[in-house]
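In keeping with the milestone schedule agreed at the kick-off meeting, the structural modelling team has produced records for the first pair of proteins. Each record is given below as a sequence line and a structure-token line. The laboratory manager (R.T.) confirmed that both were archived under the project's standard naming scheme.
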Amino acid sequence: MFKMKPSSEVRLDHQIIYEVIEPGARVLDLGCGEGNLLSLLAEGKNAKVQGIELEDQAIHECVKKGINAFQSDIESGLKEYPDRVFDYVILNQSMQEVKQVDFLINEALRVGRILIVGFPNFAYWKARYMLFVKGKAPITRSLPYSWFNTPNVRFLSIKDFQDFCRQRNLKVLKAIYLREKTIVHFRPNLFASEAIFILQPGNGH
């Protein structure tokens, strides 16, 4: 599947997103963290990259990597961008922390042609086991926080997001389901710990 050589140093979700992005594309990463994915895209795909990130230290790391990153809340940081200024907008492992999901996804699809969304699956079997058998809030590799310090404000499953896309008439170009270092093909809502959806607006948008 990947043209890029898989590496233990590069996260699987980053490898998948790397493969999706076309060479020379204009890319905006919402919640870009320390800029690892953008750095990979800039170096390997000659992509024209920008990031939006709230944390000070992460911004400093982006600057060290030569990444053009702006310090802002991703829920309000897109209003200055004109329509379709980016080829791809990435919202990877950030959506579950967003309060206005509808608004942000609409804005992302306004400023970009394609939206790549990655999120942890709260219906993963290990999370179900911890909740229903142990009676405790789930902690897994993709959900590493305790209940009292988690940044997550949304607790969604793969099926939830599939329903969301249908209800909002979003066109799913592709969906990839992951568990640690493997791709999941069977019953992903149960066996995948995270998902990546590649989206475009539907006919109604």
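The second protein of the pair:
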Amino acid sequence: MFIYILEPKINMKCPFCGHGESKVVDKRETEDEKATRRRRECLKCEERFTTYERIESSPIMVVKKNDNRQQFDRNKVLNGLMKACEKRPITMEQIEKVASDIENKLMASGQKEVKSSEIGELIMSALKKLDDVAYIRFASVYREFADIHSFEEALKQLTKKKK
């Protein structure tokens, strides 16, 4: 006889009420099997939320345009993607997958330092495949479009590649 026992109460603060105890109601590996996704239920307010568990590895340092260095932050990638994809028919799962793919590529490269421009190009490449509008939104900020001509040029390049 096999008995499947859900994980016991975990000290994980509920994002809704702040209560410190929750239980795991579902646990799955992500598609790339690099993280474990857990659906949790707060023992106080009974709201459900999702957490992800990832293996921690040596940090990757991001070299900014001004040569400053800071530790890679997956949340910054996620935030940029969410802003670009706002009000578009793109699911949070798709956004999470893009962020995970980018993080995995950086980890697999073995580099200890990566230029912020490389990360920006990875994001733009993924968005171009996902949604044209999200791509243009991200490109307009990333490429620092100064005027309407910059926009027109980006649109021309996008439409050339789509033909």
